[in-house]
Amino acid sequence: MHKKIVLLPGDGIGKEVTTEGKKVLDKIAQVFNHQFEYEYAAIGHDAIESTGNPLPDETLIKLKNCDAILFGAVGHPKYDNDPTLKVRPEQGLLKMRKELGLYANLRPIKLFDELLHTSSIKPEVLKGSDILFFRELTGDVYFGEKGRKDGRDTAFDLMIYHRYEVERIAHKAFQAARTRRKKVTSVDKANVLESSRLWREVVQEVGKQYPDVQLEHQFIDAAAMKLIQNPRGFDVVLTGNLFGDILTDEASQIAGSMGLLASASVGDTVGLYEPIHGSAHDITGKGIANPLASILSVALLLDISFGMKQESEAVITAVEAVLKQGFRTGDIADTSTDKVKILNTSTMGSKVVEQIENKEPINMTALNTASFIASIS
Ligand code: IPM
Ligand code: MN
């Protein structure tokens, strides 16, 4: 197959991890006999520096004319420390989501058995956790009217949802639940917010079309607590943009590290794949960032956008095999055991590539990736 992929490394460690994601794409193309054509484009702080715009038109044109997008991260401490700056790197990411209609953000939280002991949560609470988040991505307080008034002394961000926005992502969540453990937990704040009451009403209506799927509702505050108390109680979680942003960072601790979590943003056109972590300027340039989130985003890309199930499984299986052999980046290393070998960003990427090349360990029967794949397709 011939496919065109746009690479958007962005800022900070986004560049380092995307380089590793591309290495994996190259190896997959070689082993499975595909042609992947790449185009690079600018976004975020880098794009502001060179064009004054966090999402230049040139980038947008490339994004609208490709088969899939692999994105790194955006952000820069300069903007975090100065709230008065009008042009910000994150605007590039938000505009891209909106312009491409990427309304459903899938964030699978699955714990690799090898990493059971790296989380700060007790292994007996974590074992077997497997959650798929559907975070709505183009509505909510992120995109509602915002501004200042009263001589700039009052600020507002409108939390707004339209029925169609809730309907379309709810359908996606229920459909995914059908391929999994058939349970949807919808998270809102319907005891306080009108937009959440619409959310709940619409989710209930859509749920009636999926009588085989169990639907429960939780308030965001309670969900945040239960997620850590009993992560196995969740299968598919369906929630809005802001609540989903917060809950999925929390849920990353169930998988051990933010450095492991991949995500897929899909809508009606092209799909965008990205680690859920940010630009992490505190570790940028040190070569220690964990590339596995980007590499696992490549696995999602191959499966969801290209329908390449076998290729996607090869990537996930290779990651599992590398972890099984004790290779770790610093963020997931349990240094109390001498079985662990610490790798840097680039050598971790190369290990995964080696595993894809070397079919033997990939076919190890002990490895089970099927459920992960099925859960997101
Ligand atoms: C994420 C990020 C973004 C978000 C930021 C960078 C705008 O935190 O993808 O989770 O809030 O959506
Ligand atoms: Mn976030």
Total domain modules? 2
The value of Rg in angstroms is: 20 Å
Strand numbers in spatial order across the main sheet: 2-1-3-12-11-4-5-10-8-9
Number of strands: 14
Distance between the first and last residues' Cα: 19 Å
What ions, cofactors and ligands are bound?
A: 3-isopropylmalic acid, manganese (II) ion
- The percent of residues in helical segments reads 40-55%
Oligomer: single chain
Largest sheet: 10 strands, mixed
CATH-assigned homologous superfamily of the largest domain: Isopropylmalate Dehydrogenase
* % residues in beta strands: 15-25%
How does the overall form come out from the CA principal axes?
A: globular
Give the overall average pLDDT: 93
CATH class of the largest domain: Alpha Beta
CATH topology of the largest domain: Isopropylmalate Dehydrogenase
Tell me which CATH architecture of the largest domain applies here: 3-Layer(aba) Sandwich
**Structural class based on helices, strands and sheet pairing:** alpha/beta
In the predicted model, the low-confidence regions spanning at least 5 consecutive residues are 361-377
Number of discrete helical segments? 15
The H-and-E topology, N to C, reads as EHEHHEHHEHEEEHEHEHEHEEHHEEHHH
